[in-house]
Amino acid sequence: MSTGSTRAIALALAANGGIALSKFGVFLLTGSSSLLTEAIHSAADCANQVLLFIGLRQGARPAGPKHPLGHGQAAFVASFLVALLLFSVGGLYSLVEGLHKIRHPEQPHHLGWAVALLVFAIGLEGASLRGALRAAGSERRGRSLLRYLRQSSRTELVVVLAEDIAALVGLVFALLAVLLTMATGHGVWDGIGSVAIGLLLIAVALFVGVEVSSLLMNEAPPLALRAALRAAVEEDPAVDRVLNLVAVVVGSDRLMVALQVQFRDQPSGAALVAAINALERDLHQRFPQIQHLFVEPDEA
Q: Residues 82, 52: contact at Cβ < 8 Å?
């Protein structure tokens, strides 16, 4: 189990737990719809982080007769469930609540408490986001954040980053809605803030769901990694050429690689076996994310 991922999930859980309790308390004091939807969002995020942690634990289980390629995709299943929760509990609820408050606006009260809480929550979410970015830093290797989110197989980190970004932007929406309500005296802005938060959560949920579902359908790793794998095989002095290469993501930063290789003429069958073993050792050393490696000698 990745220590960086576990730390990022724990930090996000602690931040969201404290924020959710604070938001529910201030909602009871102010009656703000934006704060209620934000409180529901934070509570859903807590459940999401628990799901991600369970997925990581399940994914770390060793391979067995029933699951010969291991349980690595358990993290993908957990991430997909998180996307569903974000869409339903977070996004749809916020949307429905906001539309109701737009049609039947109510005037929240004690909004100064809401502003203070939202500023405090923005600080906590910012700290959680910094922790997740730090955990992803070594894997990003200069890639833009959007490209990393689309290419990474560490879905637990992708989900934490997406949730933290959505939470931070959602808090800004809620703060703007409260400030506009205070400035204008019209409660309709509170409902508009809830609708904006709901649409944001639905968009993030759809993004996460699309990316994770691709991994669940045996997505290949990025083209650059496949090219590096092919080049490493062809550098082997015993290899004539690579006839076929199939690489599939089978877990968080885990690969299954199958190779069809034409070897140079070997003096014996034992020599061919030794050449295959040497190639496998070299690939495992150069690409530690390879969990399962199969090399088939063949001819064109």
A: yes
Q: Do 157 and 82 touch, CB atoms closer than 8 A? A: no
What would you report as the CA-atom Rg of the chain, rounded to the nearest whole angstrom?
Answer: 24
Pair 210, 227 in one domain: no
Q: Is the domain of 167 the same as that of 183?
A: yes
Domain region containing 67: 3-216
223-253 residue pLDDT tens = 999 999 999 999 999 999 999 999 999 988 8
CA distances to 19, 77, 103, 171, 191 from 185, in Å: 26, 45, 16, 20, 13
Q: Is residue 232 located within the same domain as residue 207?
A: no
pLDDT(1) > 60: no
pLDDT band at 216 (very low <50, low <70, confident <90, very high): confident
Where residue 218 falls (left for φ over 0; alpha for ψ -120 to 50; beta otherwise) is left
d(CA 83, CA 72): 18
Q: Are residues 21 and 103 in the same domain?
A: yes
> Model confidence over 65-90: pLDDT tens digits?
888 878 888 888 888 888 887 777 77
DSSP helix/strand/coil, 187: coil
3-state SS, residue 240: strand
* CB contact set of 250 (below 8 Å; sequence gap of 6+): 69, 70, 72, 73, 256, 291, 292
Looking at the structure, tell me whether residues 182 and 228 fall in a common domain: no
Say how many domains are in the chain.
Answer: 2
One domain for residues 154 and 209? yes
Which range has the worst mean pLDDT, 33-37, 182-186, 207-211?
Answer: 33-37
